[in-house]
Write a structure and sequence with these properties.
Layout (H helix, E strand, L loop, with lengths): L4 H7 L11 H11 L5 H8 L10 E2 L5 E2 L7 H12 L6 E2 L1 E3 L2 E3 L3 E2 H9 L9 E5 L5 H8 L4 E5 L3 H14 L5 E4 L12 E7 L8 H11 E12 L8 E2 L14 E2 L1 H10 L2 E11 L16 H4 E2 L2 E5 L7 E9 L8
Parallel strand pairs: 2-4, 3-6, 7-8, 7-10, 8-9, 10-11
Antiparallel strand pairs: 1-2, 4-5, 11-17, 12-13, 14-17, 15-16
Helix pairs in contact: 3-7
């Protein structure tokens, strides 16, 4: 069974220690709820990850674990097969012992768009909300973060993260909790909170922004990346049914509307630092993610539209600072 004991030990003497009052029972319930389904099968696969400590780890320009010279060809083949049991791999890419996990998303491209605009992560405590398999968490660690915690409710993403962490060596201060942010007790402790690719999946975007704010220390930085549309501060797309074949997209605001929402939640120093239209090279099917991808979500006759006729995916990065809250909002 996947254990969270290293997380509890890591935060025991930190500014996150108050979570120890509640999270063990919450995570214990999560473990009991997932005794059936695919998790037990994936945990058996993880038990086979008995590999030597990597001779090299590169986290600044990529996530590259092991030089590729430590394992025999037979071991590489076995490891490739084990990693393949955690398909589909959506966020990455990762290279482990020379094995290239070519994920659906080129998450490194998003990171390149983000990292030049945020406060330096050196010695900062970071929360990554909706972290997926944890690719960006490793890049945050590579930028010098002192501790990185990710939350994502998917058991598959947890197992993908655990696979990479075991190959990298478990000593790193990086942890993934299989929870949604709404399950986290407010902490007011993180220096930086990331929410990338989450807001449009939330039924109440304002509540999501308030939950993000409640995890930040005063003066902490929010890094928000989400789908947007063109328009003024009153422009918000509410898909009637699906958006890009996704049935869990609720609100897609304009940049101006999103900045207004953040202002209403009493963030300050709000600025949009990047707007980018998702390309077919950034999100696509691969041998590690063989399901449908972006090309299947767009109108085959007009790539500026989704198959439902909505504007094609455009993503913005907004950065803001936590200000003194008005408790009338919460």
């Amino acid at each position: 069974m996947i254990s969270f004991s290293s997380f509890y030990k890591d935060i025991a003497d930190s500014n996150l220690q108050h979570w120890l009052e509640t999270l063990p029972s919450i995570l214990g319930q999560w473990q009991r709820d997932h005794k059936h389904g695919n998790l037990p099968k994936w945990e058996k696969v993880l038990n086979k990850f008995n590999y030597p400590q990597p001779d090299t780890i590169e986290l600044t320009s990529s996530v590259d674990i092991g030089s590729g010279d430590q394992l025999t060809p037979g071991q590489v083949e076995k490891l490739t097969n084990l990693l393949g049991m955690f398909q589909p791999w959506r966020k990455g890419p990762f290279t482990v012992h020379g094995i290239e996990i070519d994920t659906e998303w080129r998450s490194d491209w998003k990171w390149d768009r983000v990292k030049g605009h945020i406060s330096a992560l050196q010695n900062r405590t970071v929360l990554d909300v909706g972290c997926g398999s944890g690719y960006h968490m490793w890049r945050m660690l590579g930028e010098g973060a002192s501790r990185v915690v990710g939350v994502d409710p998917s058991p598959l993403f947890l197992c993908q993260f655990e696979a990479i962490k075991r190959l990298a060596g478990n000593q790193h201060p990086i942890h993934l909790l299989p929870l949604g942010i709404q399950e986290l007790p407010p902490l007011d402790a993180f220096d930086t909170v990331f929410s990338m690719g989450v807001l449009y999946h939330r039924r109440s975007p304002i509540d999501h922004l308030l939950q993000l704010r409640d995890q930040l220390r005063m003066g902490g930085e929010l890094v928000l990346e989400t789908l947007v549309i063109d328009g003024d501060e009153n422009a918000v797309l509410v898909p009637q049914d699906r958006y890009g074949k996704m049935n869990n997209v609720w609100f897609i605001p304009s940049v101006a509307a999103l900045m207004l929402w953040l202002k209403k939640c009493e963030f300050t120093d709000i600025r949009c630092v990047d707007i980018d239209t998702t390309s077919l090279a950034e999100q696509r099917s691969t041998n590690w993610m063989k399901n449908e991808s972006l090309v299947d979500y767009l109108d085959p006759n007009d790539a500026t539209l989704t198959v439902e006729g909505y504007p094609a995916p455009k993503r913005a990065i907004i950065i803001a600072t936590k200000n003194q809250p008005n408790h009338d909002l919460v």
